[in-house]
């Protein structure tokens, strides 16, 4: 239920200068969206400039029991940044200082509004990188990456945000400041609240700075693209790749429907018979890279392998990636509304889950297009259907139920990297038993006893 | 304060068969120790055979408000397994089933009593390994490794227990069963309780099975040992090693006092001038290993480098490691009682903290011997003094205060891998601010509202 925020807003006006907040609906409008394409209008938008602003704002929201929804750049796909019950949106976009880079100790301290790409560029000057590389990297913020536990292709070798943040400073729902974690690559003092907060979608606290673990940039990289005339052959190749000791820094997959779509949209040259495509990348020293690449080429050999293209320059690699990058545009042009899922299963079960999506596709007469980070078993299942369509919408929902049940029966999870938000909160009970969910909610209540931080997200209402 | 457990014990007798528990003090005695060399007698020892036994026992202890101290093999050094207020020790040593190994998906499900080494041997048959390799691996259990967040030399490349456990099944202090995490290498559904529990020293729940992330065994390994005529030279070599892109799988350090001790005890051939020693290991493909080794050799060049020995076989490597492995025996023979610290600082600050230990050593007239995992900045500072000595004990305590303050001023942490237990609980407030500590205690209360799980550990009483 929406609460009256007018009293709080009057106080905010006295506490923050004019340039630090919006109350006009026309100004606030854009801050009610995220990439889930849902929308709800916030009562106000506040722009914090520093940690103290966040503390002040949280305390005021707590006093008035008004929801506070922290927001980076709104690239998340699950509705996690939507102010579903109104309240104050806290935009962290102005907190974009890189506070410290320490190349000797391979860490970087940043404010939450720093864009992933800007952090990468700053690190790169020191010969370092931060592992998480979501597709949204050029326009998503580190704070948002932390809130969602973002990943990307590189996580198959280097891990996700959860594996690459050393510590956090955050403000809890009571306005208290907590410091979690360490500046070092290990640490064993007290409970690990860092990773508890990563992926908690702004429900536990508001991160005001983060210590990022940096890694040395490998000397070079090779990119390989392979087409197969069947779907299981590509996925058995993935299993073989993941069982040998050279860990690639990317194992991306596209299914036959995805290839057909890109062929029709922009790339008529794609092989007619292709039923699946892999893009595999390896990185390392100049002197070993071709050896490692050959190990991958050996691992993917299969009678159904149609062709292998290898890029030997960055330009050639960009060319190979074009197919994968064209997919989103092709999908959008064909189906402006769609359900984009983010399931994950053990690598050896990917083939089975993809076959199951084909069964669902026939049963419900909904076209399905699959692609994703196959090396992690993380597949973005796209049902080309408007979820709000009065007839197809409920069918799609039933179809998702079946998909999720199957995923869980294969020891998978409902989300590999996008999180829960509001899109998946009604399904979370399928994956997490009620005692564990209850414990999570009780933990949330310790961080945020008044439930003002992003209420209605992750847990069913 | 010790509570009367006699009523509970009478009930336990009716619920568990005779072979499943001890109540005689002479039988219980051995279960009152850990490697902190402290001791307290438990009222009873119960041996669980399965998850249901644990649930039953926790519920009974909760009903009677009697402390329950879960125990693996007691190799921890912080007193975390000591039943300081009596109560029931739950030994998990009989729960040593390897439930599942899935080489295609690179995970393994084990009961908590499985020894680290037994898990490694089972994984090895599939060409895989589990990264955590504490020195205690042959006789420490996976459950204990999880409780302490164990690490070891390999963690400089492969991370610690926190980075290598995918999920847990555990029993909370109310007897509820929780399942955390996933079987996959990523996951983003709900709060990450897995890592919250790792390193929580049995205070949040009792792990009854764990999903371990396995990695492919590299084809081969090279070991290098280097002696330097000064301490800072070795540590500047470590910084250089950690800045170049080849990440070693071990960067171990010993200081001049440690070398002198081993020279006098068992290895007279060690170079007279040596003031520090590094052991560095690299692993990878046969075709690259010597290239990588040479990169390390280049990185450690320094005018103070006295000699470099390179092992090209496992036998030669064992020989190089002998110096490091002899250290514990030498230390014990010289000083049966000692304070073995486990500080960690950013890699570039190791030299400064070691110089500070020398200052403390002179100031308090306490001999100090330093060694550890320099690639992580994790140094085991050994003060050769009996902490219970009436005169030197209090001085040593003061000395620790100074050491810890210095560590924290350098952005370090009080423990890299041993944890807090009772040894460091009085110092935890130096590192973690009171609001964060308060939150941790409140989280504990959600898992264990009656504070029966390993009470008195981690937090000051």
Automatic annotation (TrEMBL), chains A, B:
Query: What's this protein's name?
Result: FAD-binding protein
Q: Which GO terms describe its molecular function?
A: FAD binding; oxidoreductase activity
* Organism ancestry: Bacteria, Pseudomonadati, Pseudomonadota, Gammaproteobacteria, Candidatus Berkiellales
Q: Which UniProt keywords apply?
A: FAD, Flavoprotein, Oxidoreductase
Which coenzyme or cofactor does it need?
FAD
**This enzyme's EC code(s):** 1.-.-.-
Q: Which residues form the FAD-binding PCMH-type domain?
A: 38-217
* Gene3D superfamilies xref list: 3.30.465.10, 3.30.70.2740, Vanillyl-alcohol Oxidase, Chain A, domain 4 (1.10.45.10)
**Family per record:** Belongs to the FAD-binding oxidoreductase/transferase type 4 family.
Catalytic class of the enzyme: oxidoreductase
| Pfam families given in the database record | FAD-oxidase_C, FAD_binding_4
